[in-house]
Amino acid sequence: MKKFLKLVVARYLSKTPFGLVVLGIGWFLGRRHKRRRAERENAPMPRRATPARRPGAQRTPLTTPGAVDDAGHEGARS
To answer: Taking Cα atoms as reference points, which of 1, 2, 27, 3 lies closest to residue 14?
Structure first.
C-alpha cells in the first residue's frame, strides 16, 4: 500500500515543474539517508569512553617534578 501511495504522489507531482523540484529534493535526501545508514551499519562500533580515555581528560603524572625521594633521586613518585 505504501508503494502504491508513493507512486500516486510521484505521478501527481511530476506533472508540474514545482512538483519535479520537490521530487528531486526528496530523491536527493533519500539517497543521502540510505548512504549514511549503510556507512553506519558497516562501521565498527566505537569504544566507550572510559575516564582515562575521555577526550580532553588530563592524567595526573606518576612523578612529581622536582621531588626528591629518601635516596636523593629526583622525580620521586608521590
So the answer is: 27
CA distances for 11 relative to 14, 18, 22, 34, 66, angstroms: 5, 13, 12, 23, 79
Backbone angles phi, psi at 68, to 5 degrees: -125, 130
Q: Which of 55, 75, 57, 59 is nearest to 67 (CA)?
A: 75
Contact 55, 49 (CB under 8 A): yes
> pLDDT per residue over 30-67, tens digit each?
999 888 888 888 877 666 666 556 666 566 555 666 66
Which grid cell is 77?
613518585
Q: Give me the residue spans of the domains in the chain.
A: 2-41
Cell numbers 569504544: residue:
47
Q: What is the pLDDT of residue 74?
A: 63
